[in-house]
């Protein structure tokens, strides 16, 4: 037999060994990736609200200061509450929360939930939002709470 000739069986066994090593390496690599992404996902679930809470804490501070204030002046108290409310709305907007507009809007099932039908409002009010009973909100353009509205019949 010619010794320069490579034994096909030995060659195949060598290739099988190399493939086994490559497979073990890839399997370990994938397992590490899987564990890492699961940890990242868990961290996101546990701490995803951190940005939101951090943004809201200054409003909590404002409420504490307002409650500690000894003012008896109803006008000053109302103005203080209005200021905190405005700051809260601005903070929510910064987090991607927007109020669903209802005034003079056509009833839209994607954004509005009809809780009452109001007859006798005239043809121009048919299918229009007459009154908003509870404000609705979107988060990054996804509805998180439909606006509860009365609709003209």
Task: Tag the structure with descriptive keywords.
three-stranded antiparallel beta sheet; 153 residues; single chain; 19% strand; three-stranded mixed beta sheet; elongated; alpha+beta
Q: Short description, anyone?
A:
With 153 residues, this protein is of the alpha+beta class.
Describe the structure.
The structure is a single chain. The protein is of the alpha+beta class. It has three helices and six strands; from the N terminus they run H-H-H-E-E-E-E-E-E. The protein has helices spanning 8-47, 50-68, 74-94, and strands spanning 97-99, 112-118, 129-134, 137-139, 142-145, 147-152. It has a three-stranded antiparallel sheet. The chain is elongated. The model has no long low-confidence stretch (mean pLDDT 93).
What class, by secondary structure content?
Answer: alpha+beta
Number of helices: 3
Low-confidence stretches: none
Total number of beta strands: 6
Q: What is the multimeric organization of the chains shown?
A: single chain
Mean pLDDT: 93
- How are the strands of the largest sheet arranged? 1-4-5
Biggest sheet features: 3 strands, antiparallel
Order of helices and strands: HHHEEEEEE
The rough form would be described as elongated
Q: Report helical residue fraction.
A: 40-55%
């Amino acid at each position: 037999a010619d010794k320069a000739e490579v034994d096909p069986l030995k060659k195949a066994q060598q290739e099988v060994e190399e493939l086994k090593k490559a497979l073990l390496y890839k399997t370990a690599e994938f397992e590490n990736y899987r564990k890492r992404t699961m940890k990242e996902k868990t961290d996101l679930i546990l701490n995803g609200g951190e940005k939101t809470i951090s943004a809201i804490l200054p409003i909590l501070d404002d409420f504490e200061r307002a409650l500690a204030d000894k003012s008896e002046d109803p006008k000053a108290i109302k103005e203080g509450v209005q200021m905190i409310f405005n700051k809260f709305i601005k903070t929510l907007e910064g987090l991607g929360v927007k109020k669903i507009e209802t005034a003079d809007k056509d009833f839209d099932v994607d954004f509005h939930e009809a809780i009452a039908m109001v007859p006798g409002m005239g043809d121009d009010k048919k299918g229009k939002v007459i009154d908003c009973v509870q404000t609705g909100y979107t988060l990054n353009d996804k509805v998180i709470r439909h606006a509860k509205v009365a609709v003209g019949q």
